[in-house]
Amino acid sequence: MTFQAAIFDMDGLLLDTERVCMGIFKEACEAQNVPFIEELYLSIIGCNAKRIEQLFREGYGPSVDYPALNQEWRVRYTAVVKHQAIPVKEGVIELLEWLKANKIPMAVATSTQHDIAIKKLELAGIDGYFDVLATGCEVEHGKPHPEIYFLAAERLGIVADACLAFEDSNNGTLAAVAANMITYQIPDLVEPSAEVIKLGHQILPSMLDVLIDLKNRKA
């Protein structure tokens, strides 16, 4: 396996964000007297804002005031993530340091909007590792479409099939594999689906396991 760059998802992969986000969504549902549907919520992980709205409108139907629910959720979420550091997940720093030592350029490809993504990375203290950032508000088609990964690779100046991609969600993994990247999936809240498992990419329990695998392959 040879690679020239590494592209990372952010929430649930670099940062332990997904549990925080889900907890805040539950609070927003309670405040708006809307039922929390866990299966529906888990289906939106890895998607950008446009796709999230589509899935929620389909899942909740016309009986729920989606704009009001979304506003409640976003206000509560932004108040947390713009002022509090989200914990970095196990093995992330070690992997980033190893890639940096090997002079591998790095990017983030996240469905999160640009300003919030920058703030999250800054507060977590890992923004300095990344050369470029591609965000959900910059693409027409969000994950599972590969557009955001092609954008990140283009900004790095590296062809897509020479990039490593790291994801936690099924939506993100589908996007990375569709971009023909060497893909590692490190599941967070959602286990890989049967459809995703069939893709034949690497599925490992933590970033530490990814680092071990990369070192062994590079040796």
Automatic annotation (TrEMBL):
InterPro entries: HAD-like_sf (IPR036412), HAD-SF_hydro_IA (IPR006439), HAD_2 (IPR041492), HAD_sf (IPR023214), PGP-like_dom2 (IPR023198)
Pfam families linked to this entry: HAD_2 (PF13419)
Top-rank taxon, per record: Bacteria
CDD domains: HAD_BPGM-like (cd07505)
Protein name: HAD family phosphatase
Provenance organism: Aliivibrio finisterrensis
